[in-house]
Amino acid sequence: MPTYNNHKTLGKVLNGVLEQTQNIIVINDGSTDTTSEILKDFYQINQVHLPKNKGKGNALKIGFEKAIELGYEYAISIDSDGQHFPEDIPVFLKALQNEETNNVLYIGARNMEQSDVPGSSSFGNKFSNFWFWFETGTWLKDTQSGYRMYPLKEIEKLNLYTPKFEFEIEVIVKAAWNGTLVKNIPIQISYDDTERVSHFRKVPDFARISVLNTWFVLVAIFWIKPRDLYRRLRKKGFRRFLKEDLLHSSDSSRKKAFSIALGVFIGLSPLWGFHTIIVLFLAVLFKLNKIIAFAFSNISLAPFIPFVLYASLRTGSFITGEELIYTYDSIVTNFEFITHLKTYIIGSLTLSVIAATVFGLLGYLILTLFDRKKIVIGNG
Question: For an engineered disulfide with 86, which of 16, 106, 233, 307 has Cβ 3.0 to 4.6 Å away?
Answer without folding.
Answer: 16
